[in-house]
Amino acid sequence: MTQNYELNLDRSLSQTMHEQARAAIIAAIQANRSGFRVGDHLTNQELSRQNGIHRNTLAAVTDDLVRQGYLRRLPNKGFEVVQQDPGRPQLLTQHILSLSDVARRDAINSRSLIIEKETGLRRGSDLTGVFARVAEDLSLGQADSVTMLTRIRQVRREENADWSTLSIEKSFFPTQLTSGLLENSVAQIKQEGDLSIHRQLRRLFPNDDFFKAHYEISLLPLPQNLASSWPGSPSSLISVVTITYCSQGAVEMTCTWFDATRAVLTAGTLDVKIVDPA
Predict the structure, then answer these.
(1) Are 155 and 48 in the same domain?
(2) Comparing 263 with 243, which gets the higher pLDDT?
């Protein structure tokens, strides 16, 4: 007997199908409805068939629910409803910040330039100032090795236009868990001009689910050693810190400083809108 996965969605409402489906599945899980109970299995194919929603829309919904801890991705392309871990950091946003994805969505060219002197291996004890917290946030000892990758993120709308700096991004990884990541990341930047950290983590942890906790948004100033790599850096900067987790624990911490006149954070999310300079 086929399980009932109907979500009672209404196309006449102003909410998108993505928003309605996500809310309906969460409500079904929280109500312990048959088919959505802990241990039950779901597939995008069956959800799509019973609710008349495109599979791509449902794929985006189930990705959200994996990150939020409601579902676990299965090796056979399905999902299992799981008991949310109260000790797991909550995903406070519906959107995950990815400048490369944002640029691609808005038909904007983007590239990464590595800051060599701020890239390489360090010890937890070597990180000071605003980065003194990194070892603790990545659950590392002061003597443990930390992989550091720092890059300038630039964008342009037209192929023949000048590149303009939108942000500086500094990422930290526990070296023991991410062997080869730095070399592969540098190779990707050289080959493609930009980098997907998620792709590199997926290569290292092919069967894991990843989720980011929005850690903090602040007006933390750009450290002096990074400011020298951004001549004429704007006085108005937004600092965003995110941490990526998988079953191994925290595997990435990234600090990003955005030009606040160019990157507008959508209220309540980590989605960003790129605007042209005045």
Answers:
(1) no
(2) 243
Q: What is the dihedral of CA 218, 219, 223, 224, to 10 degrees?
A: 180
Domain range enclosing 28: 17-81
Task: Indicate the pTM of the whole model.
Answer: 0.66
Give the per-residue pLDDT at 213. Answer: 65
CA distances in angstroms from 18 to 11, 48, 73, 256, listed in the order given: 11, 12, 19, 28
CATH number at residue 207: 3.40.1410.10
